[in-house]
């Protein structure tokens, strides 16, 4: 059994940002499809072209999710390093 005593903050933040890109792309595509389906039938006063925002969400969601994933990943890695000193870290079995 190996014990993970600390995690490199920058490398963990990069991994979290990559997860954010993947989830953001998934949610962006889902939002684009839903806005294309629901947008034309549910026109609300004061709302601009909802379909354009839906297509734009395929680009903006991955960027927003990546930025938030990076920030949250860095905070989680920092907190893990602080807590692992007092608790002892996570035990991992390596094959």
Summing up helix and strand content along with how strands pair, one would put the structural category as mainly alpha
The strand line-up of the biggest sheet is 1-2
Radius of gyration computed on alpha carbons: 20 Å
Strand content: 5-15%
Q: Distance N terminus to C terminus?
A: 10 Å
**Stretches where pLDDT falls below 50 for ≥5 residues?**
none
Tally of DSSP helical segments: 2
**Share of helix among residues?**
over 70%
Q: What count of domains describes the coordinates?
A: 1
User: What's the β-strand tally?
Assistant: 2
How would you characterize the overall build of this protein?
The chain has 95 residues and is mainly alpha-helical. The protein has one domain. It has 2 helices and 2 strands; from the N terminus they run E-H-H-E. The protein has helices at residues 9-38, 50-87, and strands at 2-4, 90-92. It has a two-stranded antiparallel sheet. Helix 1 runs antiparallel to helix 2 (50-87). The radius of gyration is 20 Å and the shape is elongated. It starts with a strand and ends with a strand. The model has no long low-confidence stretch (mean pLDDT 87).
């Amino acid at each position: 059994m190996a014990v993970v005593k600390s995690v490199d903050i920058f490398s963990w933040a990069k991994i979290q940002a990559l997860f954010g890109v993947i989830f953001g792309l998934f949610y962006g595509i889902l939002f684009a499809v839903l806005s294309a389906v629901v947008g034309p039938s549910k026109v609300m006063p004061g709302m601009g072209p909802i379909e354009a925002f839906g297509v734009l969400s395929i680009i903006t969601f991955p960027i927003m999710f990546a930025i938030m994933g990076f920030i949250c990943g860095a905070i989680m890695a920092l907190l893990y390093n602080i807590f692992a000193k007092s608790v002892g870290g996570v035990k991992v079995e390596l094959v």
